[in-house]
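pinging the channel bc i need a second pair of eyes. not urgent but kinda urgent?? the chain im working w is below, pasted from the shared doc
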Amino acid sequence: MGNKVLFLGGSGFIGREVLPLMKLNGYDVDYPGSNELNLLDDEKTNLFFEDKFYDSVIFSSIVGRKTHLKFNSDELYQNLVMFENVYRHKNKFNHFVNIDSGLSIQKNFKEYSYAFSKYCISKRIENDTNAINLRVYGCFGPSEEKRRFFVGNILRYINKEPMSINKNIIHDFISSKDLFSIIDWSIKNKNNIPKNINCVYNKKYKLTDICDIINTLDEHKVDISINSFESGLDYYSLEGNIPIKCEGLHNGIVDCYQRLMGET
């Protein structure tokens, strides 16, 4: 197995979670920040790849995560330029791993620049036998922002405060540890992989189901507050095809809780 990897977008949440696991598992990883490698700059990107070769590139670079429910033509343009500035150097790496989003296959993906960007990139690599598309609906881990669902509610549970849900929808998530395991598998098995992997567990959960799991982490229980009882849009896939055995949602929540407890 070649273990020289370029991780692009390493300063984002997935990078913060996955990079330490890659290092721990023996990967030699480069993860330049935007001050070292500006993917919007053609010349600087060309210079970066000039004297380098990688076994795998993991592409997680994106702008517009926090405005993903809006359309911004500048963000769409930037995302496609960043991708093309990397992908044009296919002769400089053996394998390309794209971190996609479940939003890219929603019916209204063209209405949002983030989703449209993900869609275009996934289509661009569709016929590339050396590329794989990992479709992530939601990922969680202890380094996510406190405003996010998992860490926010686990911290509320630790502090014996009511957990909070906006709308009680069905939502797919995967733990960052399991996402790393999928990335690891795709690198080691790059000659025998499906084109798209939906990174979702087979069992589906409403957000209240996840809060119920959090409520079993210690001896106490807290209330679950639902902010709106209006119907919301479920966000999940029934076509999960993860090729390996995962730790699963419950174990991911326990691990996240234990790591957060170590920080409090």
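so The helical segments are 13-24, 42-50, 73-87, 113-124, 149-158, 176-188, 207-214, 249-263. and The first strand starts at residue 4 and ends at 8. — does that match what u expected or am i reading it wrong
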